[in-house]
Design a protein that fits this description.
Blueprint (H helix, E strand, L loop, with lengths): L6 E4 L5 E2 L15 E4 L6 H5 L23 E2 L4 H7 L3 E2 L3 E6 L5 H14 L4 E5 L4 H10 L8 E4 L3 H9 L6 E5 L16 H18 L2 E6 L12 H5 L2 E6 L6 E9 L7 E7 L2 E4 L18 E8 L2 E13 L8 E4 L3 H15 L6 E7 L11 H13 L7 E3 L2 E2 L5 E2 L4 H10 L4 E5 L10 E5 L2 H9 L3
Parallel strand pairs: 6-10, 6-11, 7-8, 7-9, 9-10, 17-18, 19-22, 22-23
Antiparallel strand pairs: 1-2, 1-3, 4-5, 11-12, 12-13, 13-14, 15-16, 16-18, 20-21
């Protein structure tokens, strides 16, 4: 019989090595390689040709009739928006976030509302006792919801119990890192256990038509703990973002096989749980009645939802010879360096003797490239001490040549700004043709934009 080969699996990235070593060669993490039970290797498996002896599968064309998947609304509009309309039958959803950010609270609220609507719902907790979950439900005012509750960590016990009767429409597993499968060796939370438990739960979901929701822990760098293959196995991946010290939470769709990605839902943590925020733009704008230097309002776009955020900049002149500092919160630091270089090379502005601080108000993180022009406006305003008009918004992408390029969905951004009372918009020249009730000022180059702000020419 062939000798069984040892294999070592990285608990951070899932990489497989033939021998133990202190540092993973793929993700560079230390002391993460753990030995797993080797796969059984037989001469038959090593020599058999897989091109024959199997069962023929049916191949169909792309033009075959396909029924749209049925969705189950959760009763929480912001969660349904992030999911694309609700949970899909026979699907698997993974939700990750920092400890204490509100994952369990949100799922308990969704489970209670769906159960109150008449759907069979099961909530399995591997981290808390059933009484702890029951006490939280009472604090949230959900103590009378007909949710089937259990505290278990054995995947076999959970699936055996659920297979005895009518399968639930929604199954919540909190969390997948606590589940244990007796098919393989290893402690709960290891890569092999997370993979095996997830496979069994997803297979149950596909066979019985249950929507399974898996709660995942995150590592110190913000990624979901366990192998990346876990994100590839599920149909939808949701990320819960926000600081525990802040009141507001953002639920972002990273992957969605049944809907669009980059949709967000905004929640506020209050005494009665997570409450929906219908108008998130009001959260990220500072309430002020007069113009302030170094601030600009930017209409960001998250999926199909425009969100107005305030970008703040501050410049501090230093004595000669000191090294200036660049600090960014809520935006890409490399993008800030590029905007500063373009302002200096194409517009004649010097930031080399200034410390530059950039902040996106409200704890929001901007990833939209259309924020370039708004950031440039805030920097120029802070350097020249000339405030941007309080009723104006700005958006546009800045190229290295100094050209201000148009961005997608300009009309949608302008519509949201006009709805909140803004009257003027600083936009790329190509976007000036958009039909809007606002007064549009178009610019082809960043130099023309700076001249407009400084009143030159």
């Amino acid at each position: 019989m062939a000798k069984l080969q040892k294999r070592y699996v990285c608990q951070a990235c899932g990489s497989v090595a033939s021998r133990w070593q202190g540092q993973c060669a793929d993700c560079a993490e230390w002391n993460t390689l753990a030995e797993e039970a080797p796969l059984n290797a037989t001469p038959f498996q090593a020599k058999h040709n897989l091109q024959s002896g199997g069962r023929a599968i049916q191949l169909v064309g792309l033009d075959a009739e396909v029924k749209l998947p049925d969705r189950m609304a959760t009763g929480i509009a912001e969660l349904d928006r992030a999911l694309g309309g609700g949970f899909v039958e026979a699907s698997a959803t993974l939700i990750g976030g920092d400890p204490g950010i509100g994952k369990s609270t949100l799922l308990l609220q969704a489970a209670a509302r769906m159960a109150s609507a008449g759907l069979p719902v099961a909530y399995v907790s591997g981290e808390e006792a059933a009484d702890q979950v029951r006490l939280r439900a009472r604090r949230l005012g959900l103590g009378n919801a007909p949710v089937q509750l259990a505290a278990a960590t054995s995947t076999r016990d959970i699936l055996t119990t659920l297979s005895m009767g009518r399968p639930p429409a929604l199954l919540v597993i909190d969390s997948i890192q606590t589940m244990h499968s007796d098919l393989i060796e290893g402690a709960p939370g290891t890569v092999s256990q997370v993979r095996a438990s997830s496979q069994e739960l997803i297979r149950f979901a596909k066979e019985r038509g249950t929507a399974v929701v898996l709660v995942g822990h995150v590592t110190k760098d913000g990624s979901i703990a366990g192998p990346r293959v876990l994100e590839q196995m599920v149909d939808t991946v949701l990320s819960f973002e926000g600081e525990r010290s802040h009141q507001y939470r953002i639920l972002r769709a990273i992957k969605n096989r049944f809907g669009g990605t980059d949709e967000i839902g905004v929640f506020a943590m209050q005494g009665e749980g997570l409450c929906e925020v219908a108008n998130p733009s009001s959260l990220f704008l500072t309430q002020r009645n007069e113009s302030v230097t170094g601030t600009t309002v930017f209409p960001a776009l998250e999926g199909t939802r425009p969100v107005l955020v305030e970008i703040q900049a501050l410049t501090v002149r230093l004595a000669s010879g000191a090294t200036p500092r660049r600090a960014v919160v809520g935006w890409d630091s490399g993008r800030l360096a590029m905007i500063l270089a373009v302002l200096e090379a194409r517009c004649g502005l010097s930031f080399s003797a200034c410390e530059v601080y950039l902040n996106v108000a409200g704890g929001y993180r901007v990833q939209d490239p259309a924020a370039d022009l708004a950031v440039a406006a805030a920097l120029v305003s802070a350097l020249s001490e000339r405030p941007v008009p309080i009723d104006a918004v700005a958006f546009g992408e800045v190229a290295l040549s100094g050209e201000v390029r148009p961005v997608a969905h300009g009309a949608l951004r302008l519509k949201e700004a006009a709805k909140l009372g803004f009257e003027r918009a600083l936009v790329p020249a190509a976007s000036k043709e958009e039909r809007s009730a606002m007064r549009l000022s178009g610019f082809r180059t960043l130099g023309a934009f700076v001249d407009h702000m400084l009143g030159r020419g």
